[in-house]
Amino acid sequence: MSAGMTMTLTVKHLNADSTFLLTFNEAHENTSTPTSTVLIDPWLTGPSIITAPWFAKTTHRFPSAIEHLSELPREPDVMIISQNKPDHCHRETLLQLPAKTKTIIAAEPGAAKTIRGWKYFDPGRVVAVQKYDLSTNNQTHNNIKSRSLSPSPSPSPSPSTSLFTSTSTTLLRLPIPPLSPQGSPGELAIAFVPAKSYFTGLHNAWGITYQPPVSPSDHNPSNVISIIYSPHGLPLSDLQPYIQNHLARLPGALPLTILFHSFDHAQNPWYLGGNIMAGVQGGAEIARALMAQCWISAHDEPKVDCGISVKRLRVKRGSVDQAIMSLYQGQSGERLKENGWVCDVRSLGVGEEITLPLSPDG
User: Fold this and answer.
1) What's the CA gap between 102 and 139, in Å, rounded?
2) Which residues pair with 176 in a beta bridge?
3) DSSP 3-state assignment of 147?
4) Which fold has domain 7-358?
5) Which residues, in sequence order, are CB contacts of 110 under 8 Å at separation 6+?
6) Quick check: 156 pLDDT over 60?
7) How confident is the model at residue 29 (pLDDT cuts 50, 70, 90)?
8) So where are the chain's domains?
9) Fewest Cβ atoms closer than 10 Å to its Cβ: which of 29, 147, 181, 352?
10) What pLDDT does 206 receive?
């Protein structure tokens, strides 16, 4: 980046569970301009019901930081819906967006089908992000038809105007306009990585990489913000294709900037889905492998649950201290500690936010 400019990422926890607002900022001396915002799994008010209340009904124990999406500073540029369960794909909250929203809804395939079935949003705004495919690394922006992310609001296209040549993709790549006519554009790339065993529809990860636009005088254009969002967790081996073929090939993407992962370990009997959340051990394995700079607790609200599907659910609560201890276990953990690796482990309260600077030196 050019002298006097710093890239920052602000993460705000909008509820006690797994709703996060990501704001990517270009900081110029004493000013800061948001270039892109990403909202993840919004669930603000009302219950989450699977099948029927007698089977599974979940409500928040704590009020959210906002009650309506209109209270956000601006409509999100992108909204990620990580799975088709109603605590992630929450209809009451999603319908708070205007029907002609400018927000691009990047959703797990089942969630995209559900959202389109509501017949509320322009179908061209809802993109089904398919399982990450190695061949997508050779793709360009050919899935973008008429819109790039912009720091200023722009009128929404008419409902008949599709944003994409296809509303299904294996790597969603959104260009970010350059800061000047002579500058180079940036890119926000979003990938969906399900576990190989995905029959419950719970265990997946979403990869987000953000390459800021650069000016002609920028001699270090490799500043990249990299994020893994995996609230339920998945085996590290299932994440490796994305790590090796996207993160490792993108200069500056490693070490990982932020990992979102549960601290709590949740387990049902096998006939009710088995493992629900991988907890600190699963998160620590990913954090170590990617030398994550920050690990933020996700999906760990002690919610109010009722219904037959949760009667035998066993939850072992995790903490920041336990997560830190788990990071340095085993030979790899000890070796990383000896080499000076430090991971900033956080559990953000409702409405709490953290800003991570990305210096001009990377």
Assistant:
1) 25
2) 186
3) coil
4) Metallo-beta-lactamase; Chain A (3.60.15)
5) 83, 84, 201
6) no
7) low
8) 7-358
9) 181
10) 99
